[in-house]
Prior knowledge:
This is YjjG family noncanonical pyrimidine nucleotidase. It comes from Lentiprolixibacter aurantiacus. Helix content is 47%, strand content 12%. With 229 residues, the chain is of the alpha/beta class. It folds into two domains: 8-18 and 106-227, HAD superfamily/HAD-like (Rossmann fold, 3-Layer(aba) Sandwich), CATH 3.40.50; 20-101, DNA polymerase, domain 1. A six-stranded parallel sheet has the order 3-2-1-4-5-6, sandwiched between helices. Helix 9 links the parallel strand 4 (181-185) and strand 5 (201-205). Helix 1 crosses helix 4 (87-101). It starts with 7 loop residues before the first strand and ends in a 10-residue tail after the last strand.
Amino acid sequence: MYKELVTDVFFDLDHTLWDFEKNSALTFEKIFKENELEVNLERFLKIYTPINLAYWKLYREEKISKPELRYARLRNTFDQLSITVEDELISTLSVQYIEHLSTFNYLVPNTLSILDYLYPKYRLHIITNGFQEVQQKKLENASIAAYFEHVIDSETAGVKKPNPYIFTYSLEKAAVAPEKAIMIGDNLEADVLGARAVGLHTLHFNVHKDPSHQHGEIIDDLIEIKAYL
């Protein structure tokens, strides 16, 4: 569908290429063990996952800071689990989580297959709201950094997706017009609506099983990108 139009493909990273949920779970397992914190990991993640997504939404909307995000998502989770954890330990866990997260490198199924398919045909880039000090390490440790010409993070751009500026900034960095570019990501608000607002084509990788919508094409597996590019 976009084969004759597109020259540049922009990907989100977390939840789209890099398996955030699996790598995050392994990170928590590691730091809980290191700090001798007895927590049922499955129960913890069931509470933590929606809390984390909610706090990331607040972070995207500039309603909380990065330190507030890192602290509050853990504090809120432990409180809901009725587990007493001192603030000092939460601060320690918060730091260790960021330090260890990029050491795990599981990718979403078919990531390497689709990157190998796209790389000879298109210029590939990343646009991410993730923390600058972590995202490049994720790419390098997962051995996919070489596929991407530009990696644009929200801290460098000064705004977060879906703010239109991060997309126009990314287009300028790549020296490509919006009608020649496509954004592929898991978040309808941040990746799809944000990109479409400045004229990019989009593919919504519906990994979270969001309701169907009319905001462009939807895929359930990365390999389906081959039908469009």
